[in-house]
Amino acid sequence: MMEAASFEALTVESLPLRLGGIEALALRIGKDISSWKVREVGDGNLNLVFIVEGSDGAAVVKQALPYVRLVGDSWPLPLKRSFFEYHALIRQEARAPGSVPEIFHFDEGQALIVMEYLTPHIILRKALIAGRELPRIAEDLGLFTARTLFRGSDFHMATRERKADLALFADNVELCGITEDLVFTDPYFEAPLNRHTSPQLDGLVAELRADRDLKVEAQRLKHLFAAKAETLLHGDLHTGSIMVTDEETRVIDPEFAFYGPIAFDVGMLLANFWMSFFSQRGHEQEESRHSMRDYLLRTAAETWSVFRTEFSRLWRTERTGMLYHRSLFEDRGDALGAEQALDQLLHDIWRDLLGFAGVEVHRRILGLAHNADFETIEDVDLRASCEAAALKFGRHLVVNSRRIHSIDEVNALAALIEKESRP
Ligand code: SR1
Ligand code: MG
Question: From ligand 2's centre to the CA of 361, what distance in Å?
């Protein structure tokens, strides 16, 4: 039996020779490896990402490293995350066709995925920082979340198949562990790798860490995240995991995929729109971001509305799994019963997504992994003022999730807190 080659990280120099024999890649970009141009462009927290251009085209090679790139080899991380990413991408393509990059090749031993080079797409977070109003994202992301989350659940899948997937993704322990610690726990105490804009935020940070209601609710959310294996999540659906043009939206990077609550992906996504909203004041030196702020609130509202509509459509037309079986409702002439169950389910998702959104806002300002929306605001006092407003908003979402009834209410609250934070 042939020995599997042991893992070796690619470099710009070694890539053509090492990957030149992969037919799927050579077919896409050209066989003459001497003409391949390779750039390493990874700016995320974990992996290597190369763009490889040849005479006939280009492709992306993403390779996991055996440690957290952001921190270094003191924090080991299994290469197997690449396996989960590959399997999640395949399922997302099947459940929401056209929403993810095309996969050309996967090498489990080398933890690398060769995929479509998306051009002229840019990372959504960067577009929002630049003040671009992307016309399609609410519709595309509302559909993406509804379709992947509904079709990966026991509302739709055959239970044997879903349980097999549950078992497959249950092994993504370390990546889940990152979320469990970084999102739900570390922001709420002085964890060693935490940082925040100091001294400007010191007082507010101390207040939040002493806030019993906030901590209890954050732990309820962590419990939900760990125990409610409801559907296959993307697991890290922030605006850095989305690539856009005015015409198209693609979702990338599902290496955190595992079975968890539907509300988690939706909440994380909306949180990133709201963080972008609060950060806009830090980017408006040259031009007003008034219209951008309106656009972001509108986007959050439209994403949620598209999600609800599509999820409801799938509930009525594709509810083929073992939960809320039609034999109890439609088949007995009780379509209203199925509608009542749908209402209740959407209500639960709504409540929980508010909480998940709130903790996501907190962890991006108080924890290890910050986001460029705030980080690129050079004036530290201005940045702190934007962050403080977002922190207060996040606290309100987490603690009052039971008492907030509509996305218009949330957006009105965001607008009010943002306005009051102005000098
Ligand atoms: C140590 S990894 C930090 C963060 O980067 C990823 O994109 C996830 O959001 C994770 O929480
Ligand atoms: Mg990522």
Answer: 17
